[in-house]
Amino acid sequence: MSKTQMRNLKQLVIILIVAAAIIWKTGSVWAASNEEDTGPVITKQPESVEVNYPKGATFHVEVENPDNVESYRWEYTDGYHVFKLDGTSASTDTLVIPSTMQDDPEGKLTCIIKGKNGVETVSEPATIKIVNPQEDKTVLYVGDYAVLPGETFDISKTIFGSGIVTFNESGSDITLKDVKIETPNSVFDSTLTQSLGLMLCRQNGNVNEYNIHLDGDCTIKNSYFDESINSSGITFGTYLYSDDEEAEVPLIRFDGNGKLNLSGGTDVIYTEADVEFNTDAAITAYKDHFCDGIVCHNLYVEPGRHLKFKVNGTGIESQGQIFARKGSVIDIETKAPHVSVGDTNKAAMFLYGLLTMTGAKINIHCQADSNQFIPYNSELGAFGGIIFSESGAIEAENSSILIDFKTVAGKKDYAHNYFGILDSGEQGSIVLDNSDITIRLNSKNVTDSNGIYLLGNMIMQKGSRITCNMHNKGIVRALASEGNISIKNSDINVNVSSYDKKETYGILCNKAEFDLSNTKYKILSKANGGMAFGANTGKKDKKKQKYDSSYKSSKVKFVGNTICSSPRNCTISLSSVPGSMNYIRVETFYDLLNTKKPAQEIKICKVNRASNTIKVKGKTVTLRGNILKKKSQVIARNKAISLSNAKGIVIYNKVNVNKKKYEKYFIVNQKTGKITVKKGVAKGAYIIKVKVKAFGNNKYKPAEKTANVTIKVK
User: What whole-number distance in Å separates Cα of residue 407 and Cα of residue 336?
Assistant: First the structure.
């Protein structure tokens, strides 16, 4: 082989070695690149399971090189929705579901495993199936865990609290001993778990009363919040289902020697059952999250018990009735909740049935802050104390209701339609027996308000009292009832004003009966710039009604010595209230010194008055016919009518003329009593019957007399 060939061979070998090295290196780079582009390799897939509820299940996944795993994330789908589980076990290779429910769907679970290179691998789906859904059981869920009748559960063995829960054999009594639960997160998932505190479930059971005994104070704090759906779940709930449509509504009774403290949740307590509190309880929102207090059927607050609410929504929503027994106190402090879309509408108490109070107190404090609304370009659409629906009503004996509104000033008006007590149902009524209602609002950020608005009747007796002070923008009404009001030996004191000079009304009703036989009781109504009182006649007009001195009231009744004593010279006549399409014709009080508009302020009370001493007598006046042919003549009152000893303002009204043909020729001035005889009247003798009314005062009753005035035209 020549030197040239040897040299070429060496070069070829070198080239081959270099090429092999390049190929080897390139291959290793490709291998590394392929490995980096590949997610974790699953060596053990999660396995499907079948369980007898309420037992739980465990799902496990294994991978090669677990040290290269960045995170585990479990997801669940019910066939319609996909839930990213947020429980403590949902971020590990082993998902723990501590318990199941009877109606859980056959769901699928997958694990998403993320490598440190950022690449994810999704496991095969595993199913969980309930094999005994037809078996009815009573189960108490404590967080994620299930407790069956006859079992005792030690909460300290979980991650969320301490204390002992004992469920008796019959499934009717639950004892909570020094229970402390906090659920910022659950083992499985906060969205899908049965409850973030306690949940009692029963299918077609025969127990109608469940007793929850507190052995020491019991505190359940739900600090969970899902901002994406503005929800915090339920802190205490029930699901007590029965196929029997006529079955009694079950009762949940809280009693014992401890205090119940429940915090957090979209609903702190949510149940279809009746709820009875025979222990004190505090029900509060967690931070500023949206939160309603209790949603239940009937609510019973037993004697001497104190319920305290501090919520961001409705304190109590009763689908049935509320009973507040002797010595019980319900305190509700509510802030209008945050909103994201549209207006917010909330009431501190919402009831579909009767609120019965016997020797009880309800104190409601409502607060709104513009910072909760303006950032979202939305407003507080309606906010109030108590709202009725359907057959809602209030019956109170020896009791009191306080409703107080406060607003934090904002750059613009943000709150509309405030109300103290609002009837939106079917003829709701209020019956007060030695009971008080106080309503207060003073805000320039609120537009339109009603102190009390009823579709039914209001009855007050035996020293009851309503105090209503409402001062805001827009239309303001203190007490409005589309039914009748009956006030017997009770007080009303209302004072309303509108900061932007809109309509104001003190008392509005259908019919009113005032019976104040005791001098210590009085009705005071002040509508600054508006109408102190109005009784709906049921008629509508296209034009406003004006004062008519001859009008006789059919809507207002004074019993005994009850009178409207202020204005001292008042009378009842017609006026108008603006309606949706027309004016509503109402009876109202007028001050005779100013009959251009209704009285803005009235006082009704008992006054012991003597009979009016008014005396009248008609006189005879002669007029010359030749003068009446050219012009009318005026006869002074003292020339036509003799008047003496009249008490109070006197008015004069023509009743008739003996010759009807000439009645239009004789005009009687209502205020002065002057009689004008118009020109053109024929010669002859005329008798004009004039009714003279003295309105009396605080010492003398009103009285009417008739004077027959004879006018001769010669």
Answer: 10
Q: Could you report the per-residue pLDDT of 313-327, keeping only the tens digit for each?
A: 899 999 999 999 999
- Mean pLDDT in each 10-residue stretch from start to end of the chain (714 residues)? 42 40 36 62 96 95 95 93 91 95 90 96 95 92 94 94 96 96 82 82 86 96 80 89 84 96 94 97 91 96 98 93 98 78 74 96 89 55 85 95 88 78 88 98 91 96 98 96 96 97 97 94 96 95 90 94 85 91 93 90 90 95 92 95 93 94 94 94 95 88 94 93
Same domain flag for 702 and 620: yes
Given 608, 629, 648, the domain boundary residue is: 608
Comparing CA positions, the residue from 653, 497, 508 lying closest to residue 576 is 508
Do 169 and 150 form a contact (C-beta atoms < 8 A)? yes
Say if 342 falls within a structural domain: no
**Does one domain contain both 494 and 463?**
yes
Q: How many folded domains does the chain comprise? A: 4
Task: Tell how strand 361-369 and strand 400-408 pair up.
Answer: parallel
Spatial CA neighbour of 73 closest among 90, 87, 54, 59: 90
Range of the domain at 624: 615-713
Residues 220 and 326 occupy one common structural domain:
yes
* DSSP run (H or E) holding 25: helix 3-36
Sign of CA dihedral 65, 71, 72, 78: negative
568 lies in the same domain as 698:
no
CATH no. for residue 95? 2.60.40.10
Q: How many helices and strands, by DSSP H and E, does the chain display?
A: 3, 61
Tell me the three state secondary structure of residue 490: coil
